[in-house]
TrEMBL record:
This is PKP2 protein. GO terms for cellular component: adherens junction; cytoplasm; intercalated disc; nucleus; plasma membrane. The lineage of its organism: Eukaryota, Metazoa, Chordata, Craniata, Vertebrata. The keyword Repeat applies. It is found in: Cell junction. Signal peptide: none annotated. The keyword Repeat applies. Keywords: Cell adhesion, Cell junction, Repeat. Residues 77-109 are annotated as: Disordered.
């Protein structure tokens, strides 16, 4: 577990180690089958896999990168995907969504297992069944890592989480735990998932009211609460930017007063959340059909 956080070269060596990833997955599967998702060894295994999934899209061996990203040969390398503040064109979005997804191998081995649906379902199972905060956080964090990029692999993982494995109910539960880093990681995962336009209606229906409910009523009390609030605002931005229906959902969940309160706080410590809330407000105002509702 310590070695897996030793940087890119350490991750590369461990990913290439014959049988290591397969053994970790095998152990976790056994723990879940034996109804023992809370033991320390399971936590260690998940934390290792979490670390090995970090920057996986960038650090993939050339052979995997070629086979997975061959379909992207028609997409210009100059098409970048900026963050929430970017003016991402419809064309780039459509190219991302239309990119064919990589085919899964029925018996993945080694590094192939890291993005396979089997392991994605294991993470979701641990999120639902484990009561160990580090195990929950590492499972959420692994999924966050795997959905962080803009290529076909992160998009395929996101679609598996939301549509194939029905993972949103388990992630939604993590929004309401008392452990702040678990909550923060759950929101960060939802932020990644919400970038995919084809998944936004599912995400909004399942978790938008929950996201609004965890926004602070007043000035956030700590850095981690501030970061979580900012991440919630970015996620809501993604969900409402192109959907008047989702913006109305936010309004009906009494989100507007909270967002206004956060946006008006100009202290340096919480500027990140304030800025995110302001961008969200600006985006919400673009839905002209809701102006009268906003004013009320």
């Amino acid at each position: 577990r310590n070695m897996s956080s030793a940087g890119p070269e350490g991750r590369k060596k461990m990913r290439e180690c014959d049988g290591l990833i397969d053994s970790l997955v095998y152990y976790i599967q056994g723990a879940i089958a034996d109804h023992e998702p809370n033991d320390k060894a399971t936590e260690n295994c998940v934390c290792i896999l979490h670390n090995l999934s970090y920057q996986l899209e960038i650090e993939l061996p050339e052979s995997y990168a070629q086979s997975i990203y061959m379909q992207r040969r028609n997409i210009s390398s100059s098409d970048k995907t900026p963050g929430c503040f970017g003016t991402r064109s419809r064309k780039v979005k459509e190219k991302q969504q239309d990119t064919p997804l990589p085919e899964e191998k029925s018996n993945p081995r080694g590094v192939e297992s890291l993005w396979h649906s089997t392991l994605i379902r294991i993470y979701l199972s641990l999120i639902a069944k484990s009561t160990r905060n580090y195990t929950q956080e590492a499972s959420l964090g692994a999924l966050q890592n795997l959905t962080a990029g803009t290529g076909p692999m992160p998009f395929a993982v996101a679609r598996t989480v939301v549509q194939k494995a029905n993972g949103l109910p388990s992630i939604r539960t993590m929004l309401h735990v008392s452990h702040p880093t678990v909550k923060k990681t759950a929101v960060s995962l939802l932020r990644n998932l919400s970038r995919n336009t084809s998944l936004q209606s599912d995400i909004a229906r399942e978790v938008l009211p929950d996201l609004v409910s965890i926004l602070p009523e007043s000035v956030p009390e700590s850095d981690i609460v501030c970061e979580t609030a900012a991440s919630v605002c970015y996620t809501l931005f993604n969900l409402t930017q192109s959907s008047s229906h989702n913006a109305r959902l936010l309004l009906n969940a009494d989100g507007l007063p909270k967002i206004i309160t956060i946006s008006m706080n100009d202290s340096n410590m919480f500027s990140k959340a304030s800025r995110a809330a302001s961008v969200l407000l600006y985006s919400l105002w673009s839905h002209t059909d809701l102006h009268s509702a906003y004013k009320k």
